[in-house]
Design brief:
This protein has about 220 residues and is mainly β. The protein has two domains: about 80 residues, no CATH class; about 130 residues, no CATH class. The chain has one helix and 15 strands, in the order βββββββββββββαββ. The strands form four sheets. It has a five-stranded antiparallel beta sheet. It has a four-stranded antiparallel beta sheet with strand order 1-2-3-4, with no helix packed on it. A four-stranded antiparallel beta sheet has the order 5-6-7-8, with no helix packed on it. The longest helix has 4 residues. Bound molecules: calcium ion. The site of calcium ion has 6 residues, from loops.
């Protein structure tokens, strides 16, 4: 046990505790610049949160929060209270966040420094733009995919890798071609999802490609 853990030697507290007042954590990632530990967790009905975890702090569950019980009943006293931390971001209604990664790659320069979060219930990929410790913009990507996204990571080539959650779960790679030629993408039974240049924040289209496709190639729509 690290001797400087915040509750070492404190009567009535377990020494392994670092922070408390959490509910159902589903993602952890260290910020690449600040080194701070970011976390997200599932609220009940509404109130999924992103928190920046600091030593010894109380993150509020179940006293404060932004959700209600599944029955519709009230759970929390309020949404804020002295001595309890506020989330840096929250979702009402819930999206059921799962997995998280800060983007530091070269493949999508417009996304550098963004935080990506998968979503189970909402079936999408969240892109969050940050200003220091604040979330300043949320964009919802890949909603056409209709897959529960269990995890998101950055690969060594700067692509984003996703794991989907179903009986036929898949590993997907989010990437783009640097070529000026009209992109092609492999697809066995349907075209993969195209994200618009506007979504990407550049003039180049982004393709989501199944990592195991080797057969037919499909020409991209001109738009
Ligand atoms: Ca909280």
């Amino acid at each position: 046990m690290p001797p400087d853990n915040p509750f070492v030697g404190r009567a009535g507290a377990k020494p392994e505790i670092w922070s408390y007042g959490h509910r159902n954590a589903q993602g952890l990632a260290l910020h690449p610049a600040s080194g701070k530990l970011w976390e997200h967790e599932h609220g009940p009905r509404g109130g999924d949160e992103i928190n920046i975890i600091e030593k010894g702090k109380n993150y509020g569950w179940p006293v404060i929060g932004f959700g209600i019980d599944y029955s519709g009943a009230k759970i929390h006293e309020s949404t804020r209270k002295d001595g309890m931390e506020q989330p840096v971001h929250y979702w009402v209604p819930s999206i059921a966040p799962s997995g998280m990664a800060f983007y530091t790659g070269d493949l999508f320069p417009a996304w550098r420094g963004n935080l990506f979060v998968g979503a189970l219930a909402a079936q999408l990929l969240v892109r969050l733009e940050l200003d220091g410790d604040k979330v300043v913009k949320e964009e919802r990507l890949l909603q056409d995919l209709r897959e529960r996204i269990r995890d998101v990571r950055q690969g060594p080539d700067g692509a984003l890798w996703l794991v989907t959650d179903s009986a036929s779960g898949r590993i997907l790679r989010v990437w783009r071609r640097r070529s000026e030629l009209l992109p092609v993408v492999g697809a066995r039974d349907r075209a993969d999802v195209l994200m618009s240049p506007a979504q990407l924040g550049s003039k180049e289209a982004l393709w989501l490609k199944r990592n195991n496709d080797k057969t037919c190639a499909q020409r991209a729509p001109a738009s």
